[in-house]
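WARN no homologs supplied; continuing
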Amino acid sequence: MAHRLTLLAVHAHPDDETIMTGGVMARYAAEGLRVACITCTGGENGEIAIPELDTPENRARLGEIRASELDRALDHLGLIEHHWLGYRDSGVMGAPENDDPRCLWQADLGEATERIVRLVRTIEPDVIVSYNDFGGYGHPDHIRAALLAKAAFERAGDPAAFPDQLSGPAALRPWTPLKLYELVTVTGHSRGHRVMRLVREQGLAALPTLVGVAARWRPRAERARSRVASAEGRTTTRVDIGPWLELKHRALAEHRSQISPTHPYLALTTRERRAVSPTEDFTVRLSRIAVHPPEDDLFAGLR
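OK structure emitted
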């Protein structure tokens, strides 16, 4: 079969895939490209956002709940292939869960790299997206996911890396992805520029949107989540997701254990989100082809 252009998103927990790349996944799936997602952990230690759901029974089976939420979210985004890397949630940095031998933070990096290289050779992505070296906001699992995505980008095409994968009845072949992107978290600074652009373009007509955004914006929490927008540099690529924001909203709503209906991700209307954050933004981390920023397509140079 002829190779289809393929996007792979590497994420830490269920819900990260939709929050951070739901728009581009929905867009490229709708365009007929192949889209895949790897979730590194089961998210067993996430906080349950809705108080009535935060029961001992649900806490004990949170990994199962989040897996079901993930399945439903991906159904909204389109035809998305999903793979688990198979580790346990490590909890936030400094938490006792960091020491769990089953968690991603404690995983043997050689073994974890072998797992993700196997998946990359199976999926054969042209483009991989994940986090920056800080994991976006310093979560242990995000840091590890970024490290593993980079390792797979560098090693999946090397026949000397994990040669056992390349022989036997289920033999894979070396596969060399061409572009590795890291996510750029929306910071207060970039949000400010978008709001100013909205005012310039719409004048007083923008006022209802601005009031709605201001009422739901928590700048201190947002700055904490986005201390480092990009470990390596500036935004190079802004992908328009406006037509797919409604699908992203529906997918986010499926992650009920993690995102309450009043959370800013859900509280903004589609119109407000389109006005303030109409793109998902990335930085080219590594590329084996020439890149010419600014880009508006993760597959720029590959089509």
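Strands lie at 6-11, 34-41, 80-87, 127-130, 179-183, 237-240, 279-287.
OK
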